[in-house]
Amino acid sequence: MTKEQVTDLKLKANEIRKETVKCIASIGVGHIGGSLSIADLLAVLYFDEMKTDPSNPLWKDRDWLVVSKGHSGPAVYSALAIKGFFDRELLYTLNKSNTSLPSHCDRRKTPGIDMTTGSLGQGASNAAGIALGNKMDGKDEVYTYFITGDGETQEGEIWEQALFAAHKKLGNLIGFLDYNKLQIDGETDTVNSLGDIVAKYIAFGWHTQRIDGHDVAAIHYAIESAKAVKDKPSMIILDTVKGKGIAELEGKASCHNANVSEDQKNQYLAELEAEAVLIREGN
Ligand SMILES: Cc1ncc(C[n+]2csc(CCOP(=O)(O)OP(=O)(O)O)c2C)c(N)n1
């Protein structure tokens, strides 16, 4: 990747974070922590890797994204709006009556959302089914991506899917684990540890990588490596920070579903704008 491409993706992630803050502040509360932790991944997916057509969200040859940790809707909607799937003003209707942007992702309501999610564990299975369907249709160049959380990975369904996807040799399935080490109740290691998660996915037969989930270039190269493996599903474990980008929130379990007042919104946006200045200066 060129330096310019990296800078552009960092700025996209920064913009996704800003819109996420504004979107959640428009209703005053929301799942901000686990939204901010996947902003860099969403920037790489929507602005670098995924084949999409914002003017034709159901384009039959598009790549698919299933956000299995469906409570991260605000970040996904922000990426979709920035990409041009719908008007940015829609972001500020989040979770209000008659909105097309419910707090959790809903494929029947929002252009660009490929699967309804929210019940943790199910999206991963849906993604495997989509990948299998595309494989059966001979669409080898169509990729299905999915994003799970570390708390979500405690669900039994995640491991059923892990077994199934490897058995079916779904090389067109690329998963990301947003390993921010926190869930609703506190530290994942305290609630129900994932242990050696890399060894577990390898044992299940997946091509497995572990990288810094806030490094856009590392995410890009990990996806390229995943695409080169044709006979195994891929899992990319992203070391991330819940609430990433906002000092008051970073690494705190309380940011899972938090209030965002007007004052906090302005403070958070100022912090993110300061980051954008540094990115533009090449830092
Ligand atoms: C089956 C199911 N059980 C419980 C919940 C409630 N819930 C929503 S988010 C969440 C915590 C998820 O933690 P994690 O996957 O680590 O998400 P992140 O920290 O990335 O936001 C829980 C228990 C749910 N949505 N679905």
Outline the secondary-structure elements:
Blueprint lengths: L2 H23 L3 E2 L2 H4 L2 H11 L14 E4 L5 H11 L38 H15 L7 E6 L6 H12 L5 E7 L2 E2 L2 E2 H5 L4 H7 L3 E6 L3 H13 L5 E6 L18 E2 L2 H19 L3
Parallel strand pairs: 2-3, 3-4, 4-8, 7-8
Antiparallel strand pairs: 1-9, 5-6
Helix pairs in contact: 1-3, 1-4, 1-10, 3-4, 3-9, 5-6
The protein binds thiamine diphosphate (TPP).
The site of thiamine diphosphate has 20 residues, from α2 and β5.
The average pLDDT value, as a whole number, equals 98
Tell me the distance between the termini: 16 Å
Major sheet summary line: 5 strands, parallel
| Structural class by SSE content | alpha/beta
Low-pLDDT sequence parts: none
CATH class: Alpha Beta
The radius of gyration over CA amounts to 18 Å
Q: Which CATH architecture is right? A: 3-Layer(aba) Sandwich
Summarize the amount of helix as a percent range: 40-55%
Number of domains: 1
Q: How many strand units?
A: 9
> In CATH, what is the homologous superfamily?
Thiamin diphosphate (ThDP)-binding fold, Pyr/PP domains
How do the strands of the widest beta sheet line up side by side? 2-3-4-8-7
The ordered H/E elements are HEHHEHHEHEEEHHEHEEH
Counting H and I runs of at least 4 residues, what is the number of helices?
A: 10
Q: What this model shows, in words?
A:
- The protein has 283 residues and is of the alpha/beta class.
- The protein has one domain (3-280): Thiamin diphosphate (ThDP)-binding fold, Pyr/PP domains (Rossmann fold), CATH 3.40.50.970.
- Helices cover 42% and strands 13% of the residues.
- It is built from 10 helices and 9 strands.
- A 5-stranded parallel sheet has the order 2-3-4-8-7, sandwiched between helices. Strands 1-9 form a two-stranded antiparallel sheet.
- Helix 1 packs across helix 4, helix 1 (3-25) runs antiparallel to helix 10 (262-280) and helix 5 (122-136) runs parallel beside helix 6 (156-167).
- It is globular and about 50 Å long.
- The mean pLDDT is 98.
- The chain binds thiamine diphosphate.
- Thiamine diphosphate binds next to helix 2 and strand 5.
